[in-house]
Amino acid sequence: MNTKDLAYFKALVEKRNYTSVAKAFNVSQPTITQAVKRLEREFKDELVHVDRTHSQTEITRAGLLLYEKASAITANLNLAHQEIENAKLSRIRFGLPPIIGSLYFPSLAGQLLKNRLLQRLNVVETGSGGLLTAVKEGTIDIALLASVLPLHDPLLNVKHLGSRPFVIVVSRQHRLANQNNVYFKELANEEFIMLNYKFVHPKAFKAFSQFAGVNPPIIYKTPDILWITSLVKENLGISLLVHDVISPADKESLACLTILDPLPERFNISIVTWQGYILTADEKRFIKVLKQLKISQNGDYQN
Known about the structure:
single chain, alpha/beta, Arc Repressor Mutant, subunit A, D-Maltodextrin-Binding Protein, domain 2, five-stranded mixed sheet, four-stranded mixed sheet, 10 helices, elongated, WH-like_DNA-bd_sf, LysR family transcriptional regulator, DNA-binding
């Protein structure tokens, strides 16, 4: 079977017009017609019915079944092309969220440099949500991701490294600053400054809000953690962040409150690859180094 025939057929189902498909692929209309006929011979069934009376192109049930499979085949072929091209370049396409990149990854930099892997990295730095999509689409091959619950996805290989707690961060000037802990329902009327949708924090915020039966207002969203901590220091709002974001120096002007609500949501950190992806020798060595990053369940991270 010719993969081009599948591509022509897939486009015909979507456009329902032979001329439009021919123009899109810069081929003649008979080329599209012959491709459909070859597929019909292959599957011994009519795939496309042309109603010349009403000038309509109708897709049969068999055609619609083939279209579903053709879409999956085309997607997998595109992914294979990307993976093979990347293998030729001998580069490691790596996704790294800013929080993990600043808090945990630097401890591995020396070993990566020693093993001549650091200079091979093509790093994409954005929130875990965007990186998870990028892994599934094949635009990156390995990612160090955060999730509010341990990742379980049949399309992915996942190595869970550990988790860290979310905390409520307030200014030392805030009325709650002298408390060590807080129930989320006590924050119903507090104004939050939050990381945006690219990060996992909004999911944790939603889970705590729903559990507590409250809907605290979010007055500002940003992808910049330093901007959030700066605004909270000025007592312009409070935030929900992973505990390790707040450094010892920050604690002179910021307080971290333990959330008492018994939810499983935490800042889980995992190594993620696509289920069908074949690792290169360098990528295997790279993941071996990443696995040495052990995230403590209760205390500080360990390397």
